[in-house]
Amino acid sequence: MNSVTVRVPAKVNLQLAVGPLRDDGYHDLVNVFHAVSIFDEVTATAETGMRVRVEGDSAGQVPEDDDNLAIRAASALAHHAGRSYGVSLLIRKSIPVAGGMAGGSADAAAALVACNELWGLGLPLADLMEIGADIGSDVPFALLGGTAVGTGRGERLTPLEVGGTFHWVFALAEGGLSTPAVYAECDRIREATGTEAAWPQASEPLLDALRRGDAKALGAELANDLQPAAVMLRRSLARTLDAGREHGALGAIVSGSGPTCAFLADSEPHAVELAAALRAEGVARDAVTAHGPVPGPAVGQRP
Ligand code: C5P
């Protein structure tokens, strides 16, 4: 085999509870991850040396050097195997770049799965997740897919059974937000307002809504502690969120560290209507529909 293609989904956080800043610069989280049907595709081809090329809408915003998370993941895997493997990675991007949907982590996860296959390593998922956790906090979930509760930095995962499919609209913003900058702004707001960060707890009503597949209840429980910080850094997001609520979204939330906004619809046709309304209001660069949960990385499929 000299080429392997892996399709990998984006994520949205249904609950992101951010605890106090730790000594290592990270925050303890409760992070309810949910994989949705917006996909990047990574093709790994046998090659001497490591290289990466990025195609797609926002390809220009993704580094094509050693800072690329997919290359870092492939290098970490080769290092783990103790061999000087080479690979050429082609990333076809649909997941918004620096959009709060873990696009970089998804590409790293896809690279791990593709290179594991290409190099015939046969490592189990648990090993890939451990290697992935060093690349980024969201990489283990990107390897898992579905819906899961993350604790620690977000890398310790418990999969969740979900009782149905949810229909989403994602409002894509012009340009990205830096994840460290949004966490830092969250800390700054807490300090300025004298708010003590509580120890993060999973929301039982939210987990229950997921188990029952109850979109209305889920919409009411969506919660993101990073939202005030993302809105502070990108004021226009307040208007985007309001527009979704005015058009009947069951829940409206900034996705992860933003600036993508996620809206829960009560059906697929409602999602299509909502996306059209957001586009017509001019509150986003684009609005796309998706469903979740979807499985994690899939080998040999095209989007
Ligand atoms: O793990 P990852 O490299 O994706 O994290 C990017 C940045 O997000 C970290 O450098 C840190 O500033 C912030 N972060 C955090 N707490 C977490 C996860 C990420 O503060 N649990």
UniProtKB/TrEMBL annotation:
The keyword Kinase applies. The lineage of its organism: Bacteria, Bacillati, Actinomycetota, Actinomycetes, Streptosporangiales. One of its GO terms (biological process) is isopentenyl diphosphate biosynthetic process, methylerythritol 4-phosphate pathway. It comes from Streptosporangium sandarakinum. Catalyzes the phosphorylation of the position 2 hydroxy group of 4-diphosphocytidyl-2C-methyl-D-erythritol. Residues 68-146 form the GHMP kinase N-terminal domain. It catalyses: 4-CDP-2-C-methyl-D-erythritol + ATP = 4-CDP-2-C-methyl-D-erythritol 2-phosphate + ADP + H(+). Belongs to the GHMP kinase family. IspE subfamily. Keywords: ATP-binding, Isoprene biosynthesis, Kinase, Nucleotide-binding, Transferase. This is 4-diphosphocytidyl-2-C-methyl-D-erythritol kinase.
